[in-house]
């Protein structure tokens, strides 16, 4: 880890953009940051892969937790809504991802991947063709490489398909893997998958919920997974909370599984394997 370079990066921004100077802190429980009277922490939820008749964690999705001076939680969307301009939003987004990267690097086992969310506003604020350049450098300061990171993008948030396509290809050239998040919600459609060619597609939890309630949806669910496989992508079923949803995702052919059924988000990475039956 190159702490001085990390701090130097965040301290070089003009006060008009970065209204507060962040302070990276280190404790027995990991890295966190203080920014404008708020505390920023990481939690991680494991993403499980089939192994024989059971499952093992192969990746971890990082999630931001924000709290005030009294320890009261603040919704993440409200935290980012405080940004005074697009540049400050990018600044805070990168600060959050650096905290995640530092905590992941301190705990990860060889071969494990880090899933990071990229907000649509961030994509729109970066010049086309430059996506990933700065973050690749910051990752290096944290002791990670782009190949260890999967960037999650909600494609329905971006109306400009040309910009989104350019951003994804820029990230991929640098070694990042791309996951389309929340597919099946909002205005998600296959036309975009054919053009964007993501490495992974995370199915919105509403698809599992509908499949549990509607026989037609239940019949279509595995065919949806087959189509994504035909397009060259892996499928992540997220939001799994029950045994029935687990069975449906497993039997439907999902490559990776995620949800409270396996583990809740926590500061420590979950390394233990599970022996859920695939029946």
How much of the polypeptide forms β-strand, as a percent range? 15-25%
Low-confidence stretches: none
Q: Sum up the overall morphology in one term.
A: globular
| Annotation, overall tally of beta strands | 11
Q: Number of helical segments?
A: 10
Widest sheet, order of strands: 3-4-6-7-8-9-10-11
The topology string of helices and strands comes to HEEEEEHHEHHEHEHEHHEHE
**Rg, Cα atoms, Å:** 19 Å
Class from helix and strand fractions: alpha/beta
Describe this entry's structure for a reader.
The protein is globular and about 55 Å long. An 8-stranded mixed barrel has the order 3-4-6-7-8-9-10-11, surrounded by 5 helices. About 35% of the residues are buried. Strand 1 (about 25) and strand 2 (about 30-35) form a beta hairpin. It is built from 10 helices and 11 strands. It has about 280 residues and is an alpha/beta fold.
């Amino acid at each position: 880890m190159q702490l001085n370079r990390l701090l130097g990066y965040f301290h070089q921004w003009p006060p008009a953009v970065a209204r507060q100077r962040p302070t990276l802190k280190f404790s027995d429980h990991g890295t966190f940051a203080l920014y404008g009277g708020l505390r920023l922490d990481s939690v991680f939820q494991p993403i499980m892969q089939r192994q024989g008749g059971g499952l093992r964690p192969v990746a971890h999705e990082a999630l931001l937790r924000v709290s005030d001076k009294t320890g009261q939680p603040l919704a993440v969307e409200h935290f980012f809504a405080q940004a005074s301009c697009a540049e400050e939003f990018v600044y805070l987004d990168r600060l959050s991802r650096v905290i995640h990267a530092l905590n992941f690097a301190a705990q990860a086992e060889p071969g494990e991947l880090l899933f990071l969310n990229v907000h649509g506003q961030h994509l729109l604020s970066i010049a086309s063709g430059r996506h990933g350049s700065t973050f690749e450098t910051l990752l290096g300061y944290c002791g990670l490489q782009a190949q260890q990171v999967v960037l999650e993008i909600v494609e329905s948030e971006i109306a400009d398909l040309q910009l989104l396509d350019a951003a994804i290809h820029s990230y991929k050239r640098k070694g990042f893997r791309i996951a389309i998040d929340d597919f099946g919600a909002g205005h998600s459609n296959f036309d975009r998958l054919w053009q964007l060619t993501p490495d992974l597609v995370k199915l919105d939890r509403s698809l599992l919920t509908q499949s549990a309630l509607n026989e037609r949806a239940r019949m279509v669910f595995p065919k949806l997974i087959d189509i994504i496989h035909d397009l060259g992508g892996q499928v992540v079923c997220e939001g799994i909370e029950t045994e029935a949803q687990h069975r449906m995702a497993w039997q439907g052919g999902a490559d990776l599984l995620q949800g409270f059924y396996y583990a809740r988000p926590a500061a420590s990475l979950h390394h233990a394997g599970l022996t859920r039956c695939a029946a």
